[in-house]
Design goal:
- With about 375 residues, the chain is of the alpha+beta class.
- It folds into 2 domains: about 230 residues, no CATH class; about 130 residues, no CATH class.
- Helix content is about 30%, strand content about 25%.
- Strand 4 and strand 5 form a beta hairpin.
- Bound molecules: iron/sulfur cluster (2 copies).
- One iron/sulfur cluster binds next to helix 12.
């Protein structure tokens, strides 16, 4: 344990050889730690107890419809970009049981859902993902319709962010102002610094809980050299961003171009597979299934992720209203980048690039917007809605 005490905004250095101390401190304080691990040739999030389970020395190459792991030249702990799994897997699970009823004699007994979640630390949250969590917080915890399942989980989360060093080909967080450096929304934010002779982490304290955890591990206060090295990591990441999305007047642009020929073009490529919505860290659409067993002795109501790419999603009395791929892709993109602003005050996209990487057809949201902007109508002045 270090004797120097730290506070919010302080920056400290944790040497690589002491990094296990961070996991140990989290576990000792009662957190279940979830972080990056290698599984099925991808970086996914899983339960961790040792830094040996991190994807040390691996990185991931991204492209439209392309993802592969490759060895790095160094032993970086967080040298990858992003895998297919986002933190919504834990905060907003793909399937939950809302209630269940079991026949007990002549009566049915209603069982409440078990929402007793243990304290959990997310290790390795990218800055764009912090913004994605903040967007889901706004919708599911701070809006008119509270989601008690999300809230119970969210209130027990400790966030260890990791600032990006090498963005992937599909990243555009700088366009969405969500990265590559975490500014708020974390308990501890790490920047991994590797040079010829050193390998260490500069840790910024973001909360009292973060200061308490740092107090349990071996660290030194960051000197100006370490702070500058961490800033350079973020600056380089910002300069090497894979993609750009021009967001100027994007809401008005999309509203004014609902009949642009590009929607037909993208519909001819889109498989309506819904992958883009499953991997997106901000998508939150769900459906409800009621089921009973064949003997009628038990019944359940389940909530599961849904997607605006399914036909059923737009089913209203008499049929679905978005029957074509064109109408479904247009709905998704327009909601993400335009009507989300009207609903929730900002964009529904954080620029993580997952929908590009995991689209089997290699459809790229930034290309689609560019094509609409290049050949599209500009919004009439009367159509401009004040943000
Ligand atoms: S855009 Fe790509 S990922 Fe999304 S539904 Fe179409 S084919 Fe699937
Ligand atoms: S729309 Fe695509 S780039 Fe934007 S947050 Fe969702 S998955 Fe990431």
């Amino acid at each position: 344990m270090s004797v120097t005490s730290v506070g919010i905004k302080d920056q400290v250095v944790i040497q690589k050889d002491h990094f296990q101390g961070l996991l140990d401190a989290l576990i000792k304080t009662g957190y279940d730690v979830i972080g990056p691990a290698l599984q099925n040739k991808a970086v996914v999030y899983d339960h961790l107890t040792s830094i040996k389970e991190l994807p040390i020395g691996w990185t991931d190459e991204h492209g439209p419809g392309k993802y592969r792991l490759v060895r790095r030249q160094d032993e970086a702990y967080f040298g990858y970009v992003l895998g297919p799994i986002s933190w919504k897997k834990y905060l907003f699970p793909s399937q939950v049981t809302l209630w269940e009823a079991r026949k007990n004699g002549p009566e049915y007994q209603l069982n409440k859902i078990d929402n007793n979640i243990s304290k959990t630390a997310f290790l390795g949250v990218r800055p764009c993902e912090i913004h994605a969590i903040a967007k889901q917080d706004k919708i599911l915890m701070q809006g008119e319709y509270l989601d008690p399942i999300y809230k119970a989980r969210r209130e027990k989360i400790f966030i260890v962010a990791v600032n990006c060093a090498e963005p992937g080909e599909n990243c555009f967080c700088t366009s969405m102002q969500t990265g590559p450096r975490a500014e708020t929304g974390f308990d501890i934010a790490l920047t991994e610094v590797i040079d010829q002779d050193h390998h260490y982490f500069v840790a910024e304290i973001g909360s009292e809980a973060g200061a308490e955890i740092i107090g349990h591990i071996k660290f030194e206060m960051a000197d100006p050299g370490a702070k500058t090295a961490a800033e350079q990591v973020s600056r380089k990441a910002s300069e090497n961003m894979g993609k750009k999305l021009d967001t100027r007047g994007i809401k008005e642009l999309l509203y004014a171009n609902s009949e642009h020929p590009r929607w037909d073009d993208v519909a001819s490529r889109c498989l309506t597979c819904a992958n883009c919505t499953m991997v997106c860290p901000t998508c939150f659409c769900v459906n409800i299934d009621d089921t009973t067993n064949l003997t009628g002795t038990s019944a359940e109501r389940r909530r599961r992720w849904d997607s605006c790419f399914t036909l059923d999603h737009s089913y209203i009395h008499g049929g679905s209203i978005r029957v074509s791929a064109k109408s479904r892709y247009r709905q998704w993109l327009t909601h993400k980048l335009a009507s989300w602003i009207d609903q929730f005050g900002d964009s529904g996209c954080v620029g993580c690039g997952r929908c590009i990487t995991w689209c089997p057809a290699g459809i790229d949201i930034t290309d689609e917007v560019r094509a609409i902007r290049e050949g599209g109508r500009t919004a009439p002045a009367s159509a401009a809605v004040k943000e």
